[in-house]
Every structure is written in structure tokens, then in C-alpha cells.
Design goal:
By secondary structure, this protein is mainly beta. It contains two helices and 21 strands. A hairpin with a 2-residue loop joins strand 6 and strand 7. The radius of gyration is 32 Å and the shape is globular.
């Protein structure tokens, strides 16, 4: 037997190592040089799978989501846009400081509307409105604005024009402020001060010129913003009291193209926001406010309050 192996007459096992063949058949192993090549191919395929998996999630550097849920944090420290300060603006948002040269700028002007209230114009420089990426990471010279009346937030502003109803402005002299924010809700700032524009506005008594108001006095409990409510296909009535929503948050199903009227009464001043549609509505304390919108976009959209971070309902549009 040993002589046969030495002469190469018999079948060998593992490349002549002496392991007997299986079932009487020779075991043919790949050449020694083929095994490293196969291992290299396997490692390359594994690296490709990991790369594709990483790219599919936002945690590996993908585009930040444009939607945020109440109680979740924003990507405030991502990227290298400006310097995130510990200081905050009057509403509690952290400042994101940028150099004065090339920094965003904003000016505010108001024109009386022929029907009701005022039309506000925001003139910006080195800045663009990006409503589609609100809630994502901060991008240079991009974001949205907040509108305040005497230090109280009225609404977010996603473009250069905004209509301010007379019912939201009590009689007398007031200060309107617009402040610029990044997509992650940090306030753009220069030398430690938030970038903003202000305007003095005087509201006349109902029935007098100045505010062009055709609505009852603000002290009278009347619905806020009720456009064509009679034409709404669905009506949703909600109440917010002591941090709880009644009825409990659920889903309101709509067909694309239907109009829905949202009636909301809150025991504290707040702002209603319909995600995806970027619709907002000021909620005066103790008064019913109504928002009517056309569901012209399919998907699942949350309706929430910004100050109390409560989900009121979800609009499921098919």
C-alpha cells in the first residue's frame, strides 16, 4: 500500500495527506491559490451588503426625516453649520450662531387686508424657506420662521407671505416679531442674538378703520378661521384639557380630495399643526378654533399641538 502511494498508483485523499477517499472516489481539493481568491470575493460581497444596509437608515448618514413625533429630539448637533450655543431665544430654542458675513436676514412689513386683518410680508436675504425638510438636520441658510405677537407665538411661517386675522390681534398697539429658525428648530443667531425682524402694529376697535376687521371683538368667543366649513365632507371635534385629548387620539379616514373640518378647543393657548400639509392654526385659550383643509395628498398625517406636544388625531388619506 505504501509502495502504491509512493508510486502514485492509488487514489489519494486530501492532496496526498493520507486521508482515505470517500466511497472509494478521490477527493479533489481546489488548488491552494483558489481559496484566498474565494475568501476575498466573500469579504467584498459582505462589505457591499453592509454598505447598502447602512445607506437605508438615517442613522448611517441618510437624509434626515422631515417628520418628528412629540417628545423626540431633533438633530441639533449634526453637521458643521455654525456653532450650537447653550443660550436660548425667548421661546426656549437653542441658538445656532453663524458669522455676520453672509448670515440670514429678515424684515417684516404689514399691509391691511381689504377683507380682514393684515397681510404680512417677510423679506429675507441669504435665506430660503424649506417646509419639506422641517424636523431634519440644520442646513446653511434654510428653515422657517416663527411669528409672535407681544412675545406670544402665533404660528410658524413657511413662506414670504402670511395672513394675520384681525381676531388674533386685540385692540391697541402691539409688537410683531418674526424670527428665523433652522430645520432642526434651532434659532439662527449672530453674536449671540437671534436673527429677527420686528414691526409695530396698531389694531383699531371693531367697526373702525385700521384693522379692516369685520369680525366681533376678540373677547367674544367666536370660532377662529372658518373658511367654507359648510362644504366640509368630514368634521372632527376635539377637546384638550389638562394635557388630555378627548376623544382619545385615533385615525380619521378620508378619500383624496375630501375636505375635513377640525374643531379644536384647548384650555391653554397653543398652536395646531397638520404635518405633511404644513397647515397651522392658533388655538386661543378656552375658545373653539376651526381649520378646514382639502386632503389632496395621500398618506398618514399627524395633527398635533406644538406647545403641549399632543397628538390630536391622524388623517389617513387614501
Amino acid at each position: 500500500m505504501n509502495a502504491e502511494r509512493a508510486a502514485g498508483a492509488g487514489p489519494l485523499g486530501c492532496d496526498g495527506c493520507g486521508v482515505p477517499p470517500v466511497g472509494g472516489l478521490p477527493v479533489r481539493m481546489p488548488p491552494a491559490g483558489a481559496r484566498p481568491r474565494r475568501a476575498a470575493r466573500t469579504a467584498a460581497l459582505l462589505a457591499l451588503v453592509l454598505l447598502l444596509t447602512c445607506g437605508a437608515v438615517t442613522g448611517c448618514g441618510g437624509r434626515a426625516t422631515t417628520h418628528h413625533k412629540p417628545g423626540t429630539g431633533h438633530e441639533q448637533a449634526t453637521g458643521s453649520v455654525g456653532t450650537l450655543l447653550d443660550a436660548q431665544d425667548p421661546t426656549g430654542h437653542r441658538l445656532r450662531e453663524v458669522p455676520a458675513e453672509g448670515a440670514p436676514q429678515v424684515q417684516l412689513a404689514a399691509r391691511p387686508d381689504s377683507e380682514d386683518g393684515w397681510n404680512l410680508q417677510l423679506t429675507v436675504k441669504n435665506f430660503r424657506f424649506t417646509p419639506d425638510s422641517t424636523g431634519g438636520a440644520a442646513l446653511p441658510g434654510a428653515g422657517h420662521a416663527h411669528l409672535e405677537l407681544d412675545g406670544r407665538k402665533l404660528a410658524r411661517v413657511y413662506g414670504p407671505w402670511f395672513h394675520l386675522p384681525a381676531a388674533q390681534v386685540p385692540e391697541g398697539a402691539h409688537t410683531l416679531t418674526v424670527r428665523l429658525y433652522a430645520d432642526d428648530h434651532t434659532a439662527w443667531a449672530v453674536t449671540g442674538k437671534a436673527i429677527e425682524g420686528t414691526l409695530q402694529l396698531t389694531a383699531a376697535a371693531p367697526g373702525q378703520s385700521g384693522g379692516h376687521s369685520h369680525t366681533p371683538p376678540p373677547s367674544t368667543p367666536v370660532p377662529t378661521q372658518v373658511p367654507s366649513e359648510a362644504q366640509a365632507d368630514r368634521t372632527v371635534t376635539l377637546t384638550v384639557r389638562d394635557g388630555k385629548v378627548t376623544p382619545a387620539p385615533g385615525r380619521t379616514e378620508l378619500r383624496r380630495g375630501e375636505r375635513v373640518a377640525l374643531h379644536v378647543t384647548s384650555d391653554r393657548a397653543d398652536t395646531l399643526h397638520v404635518h405633511g400639509y404644513d397647515k397651522e392654526l392658533a388655538l386661543p385659550a378656552g375658545q373653539e378654533a376651526t381649520l378646514v383643509l382639502t386632503a389632496d395628498r395621500t398618506g398618514l398625517f399627524e395633527v398635533e399641538t406644538h406647545e403641549s406636544h399632543l397628538v390630536l388625531t391622524q388623517l389617513l388619506v387614501r
